[in-house]
Specification:
binds adenosine-5'-triphosphate; 249 residues; 7 strands; globular
């Protein structure tokens, strides 16, 4: 993949991600709504400062512990996740013994197949092409999942998700971990663990933390309300500092 973005560009990383999403859209992996969701994420990342803050690191470590403690952890992948971070998904899933399931909000069989192929081309088998179960409480296409994967999962890592499905998974008794740059979203508020960090950065951090040891207390003392509050306070203090320095210039 080669984008004509000079590495010296101050927002190089962000622009490469944007190009990956556009390419994913052209290849039929990303849905129209995925383009809009990416823009929402970019806006929050700009405000957060495009780096992994403490609230993200704590949640990433807690998530690893929860996944390691699980009996059937499943990584749920949508179009944006596949377009941005297929290699990181594979590496983390291997390190943490997670199944991978392609699960789409705007499900079309064609898009599912294309995303499944992204994994198969890398020699990795994933679930999702032949759904035989439903997430309870949702209507038809959004509900489809596999019995072996999401339906039977005790812990689900489901980045960039919408609030209804997160709630439906919680109602089924699952422990839900999400990655979402918007600490105000319904998903962020509904999940058990919300990682307020950019998807690729979060997965890279989690890969690196999975290779070392993580202190058990991080999960024992974890409070998602506190993490979301830290994220909102960070956003608010960063904006007021920026506003003050703007006035002084
Ligand atoms: P909700 O239903 O949870 O209130 P929503 O309607 O925004 O939120 P979606 O569009 O399904 O639901 O959610 C996508 C979420 O993912 C958005 O909150 C967006 O900010 C976030 N997001 C988009 N791209 C990224 C990314 N690369 N890394 C992390 N988060 C992202």
């Amino acid at each position: 993949m080669s984008f004509n973005i000079p590495k010296s560009h101050p927002r190089y990383e962000s622009l490469v991600k944007r190009e990956k999403i556009i390419e994913g859209f052209k290849n039929g992996i990303v849905a129209y709504a995925g383009l809009i969701a990416h823009g929402r994420g970019e806006a929050f990342d700009y405000i957060i400062g495009e780096r992994s803050e403490d609230f993200a690191i704590i949640a990433e470590k807690a998530a690893i512990l929860a996944i390691k403690n699980a009996n059937n952890p499943v990584f749920s992948v949508n179009g944006n996740v596949a377009a941005l971070a297929v290699d990181e998904v594979i590496e983390l899933a291997k390190l943490l013994n997670m199944k991978i399931e392609v699960n789409l909000f705007y499900r079309t069989e064609e898009r599912v197949k294309k995303i499944v192929r992204e994994f198969e081309e890398r020699g990795v088998k994933v679930l999702g092409e032949n759904p035989d179960a439903k997430i309870e409480g949702l209507d038809h296409a959004r509900a489809l999942c596999t019995r072996e994967g999401i339906y039977a999962a005790d812990v689900v890592l489901i980045p960039l998700e919408d609030g209804d499905r997160t709630q439906a998974l919680r109602n089924m008794g699952k422990f839900v971990i999400t990655i979402d740059l918007n600490p105000l979203s319904r998903t962020a508020k509904t999940a058990n663990i919300t990682i307020v960090d950019e998807l690729t950065r979060a997965l890279k951090n989690m890969i690196s933390f999975s290779k070392g040891s993580v202190e058990k207390e991080i999960l024992e003392n974890y409070s998602n309300e506190e993490i979301l509050s830290m994220a909102m306070k960070h956003i608010s203090s960063r904006l007021s500092e920026l506003a003050t320095s703007q006035k002084e210039e």
